[in-house]
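Hi F.,

I've been meaning to write this up properly since the lab meeting, where we talked about keeping a consistent format for the predictions we share between groups. The idea is simple: the sequence comes first, exactly as it goes in, then the structure tokens exactly as they come out, then a line or two of notes. No screenshots and no reformatting. I'm using this chain as the first example so we have something concrete to point to.
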Amino acid sequence: MQRIHSRAAFERAVAHQGLTVIKFYTDWCPDCHRVAAAYEEYARDHQDQALFADVNAEEVPEAAERYDVRGIPTLLVFRNGHLVDRLYSRDCKTPQQMVAFLDKALDSKVNS
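Output, unedited:
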């Protein structure tokens, strides 16, 4: 999993050919901490199916603004550089919600 610390690194991750999943978080967000370990484990277990990245929304605010990330954690799914799905913070309160979304996102990649 990549840790993104700059706008340039974010743009490179988004431009990746194939599936890219980017999680926006902040250090002070309790829900972000609740899902962090599950996201890291999921990324490790599925690294052959997608590029996974983490972005601190306060460290790279232009990326969050560009994709209208208003709540955290938010997951964005890109396919060949195009945004194809999003998990809003209101639906990403537990690891189970996040994993269900990721399973669906990766399954849709296989079926598209």
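Notes:
The radius of gyration is 13 Å.
Strands lie at 2-4, 19-25, 51-56, 74-79, 82-87.

If this format works for you, I'll send the rest the same way.

G.
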